[in-house]
Structures are given as structure tokens and as C-alpha cells.
Design a protein that fits this description.
Blueprint: E1 3-4, H1 20-37, H2 42-49, H3 53-60, H4 68-77, H5 88-97, H6 107-115, E2 116-123, H7 134-143, H8 150-163, E3 174-180, H9 182-185, H10 191-205, E4 210-215, E5 229-234, E6 240-245, E7 248-252, H11 255-271, H12 275-288
Parallel strand pairs: 2-3, 3-4
Antiparallel strand pairs: 1-7, 2-5, 5-6, 6-7
Helix pairs in contact: 2-3, 7-8, 10-12
Length: 290
């Protein structure tokens, strides 16, 4: 089997500082200053921009890089007179580099994910990174052992948020996701953070480019009881599979092993709830937590 995995003796290192972190912080401070000069709250700016208040807050704190279209709209709404537009090209370059800022052991997967023509994921230990809210991701990294320092946590959160730009890519990759029902019940980060996470899952699951299903408790055992995994279809190459446990990743390229994962995925998709049934269950779970 041709597996691309790290050597066990190599320690995990913090994400690299490649200059984009400085760009994150500078743009965040500029947007916050312009907003305050106009006497707007984050909520009011979000309403005028037709985005979430969470997104505005993340950008102002420097943990999420604003997209070029966000800067273009914000320049007008905040009467910035081209100040924010001047950073658009730098932002485009930073987004191209984003995948190289992950930990060493994760970069093979991050690179494959960013270029994938198709992504198929089954998760049962934790909500996949592409679906996580900023608050959920921060809670996960904060509880990690051994403990991460605050700077590393913020960089990891920023990297995770940057990966989610794949949902904005066009043409979109084919994306299907199967979530174990346990992920709808575990309140990572507390009730408020969990409710926000469920709303995020609903938002992504409602995209016409995404097929999201839930594997309910009532369906009992199934073909993927062994753990979470992801199938990726890189452009012009064979499909690969990815698994991870406690920071030990395995990017699997052997065709026979990948075929086994693909077979498991096909079976669990057939066993899971339909997309409409799945969204209804998530909405019901969200309502129960209020």
C-alpha cells in the first residue's frame, strides 16, 4: 500500500507563519475601525453586507481572511474609498497559499482536498473541519492534549476556516457528507456553540452543491463502524482515501484499499436518511435544544 503518513518520531509542529497572519490582522483592524467610524455594530454591518455576524466578527479578530467579494462590498458600505479594494490582490494570493499553512502531517491531505474534483466524507467521532464553525473549531483545539498555545490555536482556527472556501468554488467539486447522529447530540463548546454548529450544518446541507445525510441511531450497525474517513477525487488522478486518529493521518492511494473505502461509503449512503429527512432531523434536534 502506498500510504503517505508522517514518521511516528517526528513531532507535530505549529503551522508556519507565511505572512498571511499579518494580513488577516491588518484587514480585520481596518474593517473594525471603518465600522466604528460609521457608528455601526457588527450585527448592523452584517445586515448591510448580507452576511452572518459571526463572519464579521471572525474577520475583525483576524482569524478569517475576507474574500475579495466581501472586501469589494465592504469598501462601498463602509465608504472606504478604495482602501479595502487595494488589498484584493494580496488576498487572492493569500488564499492560494492557505493550504500550505497547515501542520506538516496534514498538508498532503489539505493539498488534495483543495484541488479535489469530488469529496465524500463519513464522520462519527467529530464534525468534519469543512463544516465546523469558528467557535466549534476553537473549542476542539482548546481541549486538545497536549495543550496548544493560544497563538497556535488561533492559526489552526484560521486555517480551518480558510479551507471552507471550497464551498464557494465554481465549478464546485462534487460534495457528499454522511454524519453519524451522535454528532448532532454532542454539545461541543456548550449549548450556544452547538446550536450555532447545527445551524451551520443546515446551511451547508441546504446548498445545491452538497448532498448531506445523517446515519440515525435507529438504523443500528452499518458498514463503517470502524471509524471516520474521507474519499477524495484529485483532478486527473486516481481516487484516494484519508483517515486520521489522534493526529496520525493516513492518505491511502492503493487502488484496492481505496475501493474498499468506496464500497463502504456506498453502503452507508444507502443506509442513511435521505438529504431531506436528514435536514428535518437536524432541525428537530436544534429545536429540542432551545
Amino acid at each position: 500500500m502506498n500510504d503517505l503518513s508522517p514518521r511516528e518520531e517526528r513531532p507535530e509542529r505549529p503551522v508556519e507563519v507565511d505572512g498571511t497572519a499579518h494580513l488577516f490582522r491588518t484587514l480585520g483592524k481596518q474593517i473594525k475601525t471603518l465600522r466604528e467610524l460609521m457608528g455601526l455594530t457588527q450585527k448592523e454591518l452584517a445586515q448591510r453586507m448580507h452576511v452572518s455576524e459571526d463572519l464579521v466578527g471572525s474577520i475583525e479578530r483576524g482569524v478569517r481572511l475576507p474574500q475579495p467579494d466581501f472586501l469589494e462590498r465592504a469598501d462601498g458600505v463602509l465608504e472606504a474609498r478604495g482602501l479595502l479594494l487595494a488589498s484584493v490582490e494580496d488576498v487572492r494570493e493569500a488564499l492560494k497559499k492557505a493550504r500550505t499553512r497547515h501542520p506538516d502531517w496534514f498538508r498532503d491531505y489539505a493539498r488534495a482536498e483543495a484541488e479535489a474534483m469530488a469529496i465524500h466524507d463519513y464522520s462519527h467521532q467529530g464534525v468534519m473541519g469543512l463544516l465546523q464553525t469558528e467557535a466549534h473549531a476553537r473549542a476542539v483545539f482548546t481541549k486538545r492534549r497536549p495543550l496548544l498555545d493560544e497563538e497556535t490555536i488561533e492559526k489552526r482556527v484560521a486555517d480551518r476556516m480558510a479551507r471552507q472556501e471550497i464551498f464557494r468554488r465554481w465549478p464546485s467539486p462534487t460534495i457528499s457528507i454522511v454524519l453519524d447522529e451522535s454528532l448532532l447530540r454532542r454539545e461541543v463548546g456548550g449549548r450556544k456553540v452547538h446550536a450555532e454548529q447545527l445551524r451551520r450544518i443546515l446551511e451547508i446541507g441546504s446548498l445545491r452543491t452538497v448532498e448531506l445525510q445523517v446515519m440515525p441511531f435507529e438504523h443500528g450497525e452499518h458498514a463503517a463502524m470502524g471509524g471516520s474517513f474521507t474519499l477524495l477525487q484529485p483532478k486527473g488522478r486516481q481516487q484516494v482515501a484519508y483517515t486520521e486518529a489522534y493526529g496520525h493521518p493516513l492518505l491511502i492511494t492503493d487502488p484496492e484499499q481505496v475501493r474498499i473505502f468506496a464500497e463502504r461509503y456506498g453502503i452507508i449512503r444507502a443506509r442513511a436518511l435521505t438529504p431531506d429527512e436528514s435536514l428535518a432531523l437536524i432541525e428537530k434536534t436544534l429545536g429540542e435544544g432551545r
